[in-house]
């Protein structure tokens, strides 16, 4: 039987003692070793001696006057999470799903996200008349994060063009850093990342934007004795010109043609139009979101949930 192969160490060093991040009255120090070609037996032996690793970099505490830290190993095959642990899990999926993309689009359309070193604050406001859209948001949320509860409806007062206006609103807020970082992935660099998304994620994100901060209407006009009808989808999502142009470019990738009307009333205006009787856009959600062109019954831009 051949003797065990020695560890291949590329580097080793020890950090100088510094204030401990867990016990402020103590000094902490870590020993590091950069190891390559570690065999399974060597791996288990290192773990049993208190070493932990990130990639090929192994470390363990060597604090000068404290031994409070303990390295723990949990046998995965024997571990069953409790119900409370499952309830505390920040997310129930291991990949970015169309439902997550819809949530991020909805928040981009009519929400606010702030991310700090310790937390992410996400706030959403909707009118009670949008209960159907809020129900869709809730269904997508439950499929990824569990239960959701909107706050009670309340009345607010604002001024629009100098006139006092009363309205009713429903607020919702949550602190989820993982959602904050997923949201950043979708909206980074003023939405320039959208055009590189897989189709199903792009379609879902746009569906969320339109549900939360878009509207559609029919316009009729007569020319040379003939009447014409047009469906217009209007999106008012961003105050940034570049972000609005990238949103328009993302729509174009899905064969949705529109125009950007610039900033009006503090927000950018994107208009997508189609003449009655021509192909138009239907957003369709079954198990996954799918975007398709249709010419049935002059259907405008809507969400159909199967």
What does this structure look like?
The protein has 306 residues and is α+β, with helices and mostly antiparallel strands. It has 2 domains: 8-76, no CATH class; 98-305, Roll (Endonuclease I-creI). 28% of the residues lie in helices and 36% in strands. The protein contains 7 helices and 17 strands. It has helices at residues 40-48, 83-88, 98-110, 131-145, 177-191, 199-213, 241-253; strands at 8-14, 18-19, 27-28, 30-36, 52-54, 57-61, 111-115, 120-126, 154-160, 163-175, 214-223, 226-235, 258-264, 267-275, 280-285, 289-294, 303-305. The strands form 5 sheets. A 4-stranded antiparallel beta sheet has the order 1-4-6-5, with no helix packed on it. It has a 4-stranded antiparallel beta sheet with strand order 7-8-10-9. A hairpin with a 3-residue loop joins β15 (280-285) and β16. α3 (98-110) packs across α4 (131-145), α3 packs across α5 and α3 runs parallel beside α6. The N and C termini lie far apart (65 Å).
What layout of secondary structure does this protein have?
Layout: E1 8-14, E2 18-19, E3 27-28, E4 30-36, H1 40-48, E5 52-54, E6 57-61, H2 83-88, H3 98-110, E7 111-115, E8 120-126, H4 131-145, E9 154-160, E10 163-175, H5 177-191, H6 199-213, E11 214-223, E12 226-235, H7 241-253, E13 258-264, E14 267-275, E15 280-285, E16 289-294, E17 303-305
Parallel strand pairs: 15-17
Antiparallel strand pairs: 1-4, 2-3, 4-6, 5-6, 7-8, 8-10, 9-10, 11-12, 12-14, 13-14, 15-16
Helix pairs in contact: 3-4, 3-5, 3-6
């Amino acid at each position: 039987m051949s003797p065990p192969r020695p560890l291949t160490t590329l580097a080793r060093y020890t950090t100088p003692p510094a204030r401990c991040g867990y016990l402020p009255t103590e000094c902490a120090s870590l020993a590091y070793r950069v190891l390559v070609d570690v065999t399974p037996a060597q791996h288990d032996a290192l773990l049993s001696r208190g070493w932990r690793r990130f990639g090929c970099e192994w470390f363990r505490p060597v604090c000068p006057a404290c031994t409070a830290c303990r390295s723990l190993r949990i046998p995965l095959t024997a571990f069953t999470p409790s119900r409370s642990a499952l309830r505390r899990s920040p997310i129930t999926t291991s990949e970015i799903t169309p439902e997550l993309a819809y949530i991020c689009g909805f928040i981009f359309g009519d929400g606010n996200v702030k991310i700090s070193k310790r937390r992410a604050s996400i706030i959403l406001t909707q009118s009670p008349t949008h209960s159907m859209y809020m129900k869709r948001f809730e269904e997508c949320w439950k499929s990824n994060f569990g239960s959701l509860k909107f706050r009670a409806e309340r009345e607010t007062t604002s001024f629009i063009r100098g006139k006092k206006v009363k309205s009713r609103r429903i607020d919702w807020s949550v602190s989820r850093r993982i959602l904050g970082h997923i949201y950043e992935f979708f909206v980074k660099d003023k939405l320039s990342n959208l055009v590189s998304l897989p189709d199903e994620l792009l379609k879902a994100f746009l569906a969320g934007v339109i549900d939360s901060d878009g509207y559609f209407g029919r316009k009729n006009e007569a020319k040379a004795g003939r009447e014409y009808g047009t469906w217009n989808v209007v999106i008012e999502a961003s105050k940034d010109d570049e972000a609005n142009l990238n949103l328009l470019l993302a729509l174009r990738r899905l064969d949705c043609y529109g125009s950007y009307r610039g900033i009006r009333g503090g927000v950018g205006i994107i208009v997508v139009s189609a003449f009655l009787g021509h192909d138009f856009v239907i957003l369709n959600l079954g198990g996954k979101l799918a975007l398709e062109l249709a010419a049935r019954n002059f259907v405008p831009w809507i969400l159909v949930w199967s």
